[in-house]
Amino acid sequence: MQPRLNANPASLAAMKLVDFGQLQARYQAQSLTMRAEAVLEDAEPAMKTAERILSMLAGHPQIEQAFASVRKNAFLTGRMRPSEAKMLLMDASGDFIEGTRHKLAAWCKTMQRLAQGEDIARNGSNKEYIPAQAPLALAIAGSSGISNFLSVLQLSLAELAKLDGKNAAAHAAHVAELRRCATLLADCEHASGIHAAVQ
């Protein structure tokens, strides 16, 4: 008999969303190293929440069935933009949960490298940038789009709620948490302008 799952609505409050313009202005006023540190700090509640939900899903006996339901739903998959997350979902032989964990870890590692000042250069105007051929530039490109993975997980959790009716309320709460996670991480990623620093 499967235990009921506990939702954690308190973590939603920890993931405070702020005005995008204010967030962008705060990030853009900082050096790249300080910006990366601020992004990591702001994203921490979302990363911890996502990992908690991923750990729960990894042990759920019906999660692969939920992924298969999303994969076979032409309406849902047709509305998804082409992305690394969609490619992983559509590959029935892949492990979407492990792939999501890897993506989140790569994003964190990339921000940590930037926070340590790796590959940062200055142009003639003394403006910071990351050379396009630098290893960190490739890491930034490869770790982008993390919110896409969480969006796919939201759809999969909605399908899981149909399969696991006893825990439907908890799954719905997790969908709400992941939606907040995806929004927060997308805001951090876009407001920071770190991708634009690659030249």
List keywords for this structure.
single chain; 199 residues; mainly alpha; two-stranded antiparallel ribbon; 10 helices; 68% helix
Average pLDDT confidence is: 90
Radius of gyration: 18 Å
Report the sheet with the most strands, covering strand number, pairing sense and barrel closure: 2 strands, antiparallel
Number of strands: 2
Helix vs. strand class: mainly alpha
Going across the biggest sheet, name each strand in turn. Answer: 1-2
Distance between the termini: 56 Å
Count the DSSP helices: 10
Could you describe the 3D structure shown?
This protein has helices spanning 10-14, 20-28, 32-58, 63-72, 74-79, 84-90, 96-115, 135-142, 146-163, 168-192; strands spanning 121-122, 128-129. The chain is mostly helical. It has one domain (33-197). The chain has a two-stranded antiparallel ribbon with strand order 1-2. Strand 1 and strand 2 (128-129) form a beta hairpin. The longest helix is centred in the first third of the chain and has 27 residues, at 32-58.
What does this entry show, briefly?
With 199 residues, this protein is mainly α. The protein is built from 10 helices and 2 strands. The radius of gyration is 18 Å and the shape is elongated.
Secondary structure blueprint with pairings:
Layout: H1 10-14, H2 20-28, H3 32-58, H4 63-72, H5 74-79, H6 84-90, H7 96-115, E1 121-122, E2 128-129, H8 135-142, H9 146-163, H10 168-192
Helix pairs in contact: 2-10, 3-7, 3-10, 4-9, 6-9, 7-8, 7-9, 9-10
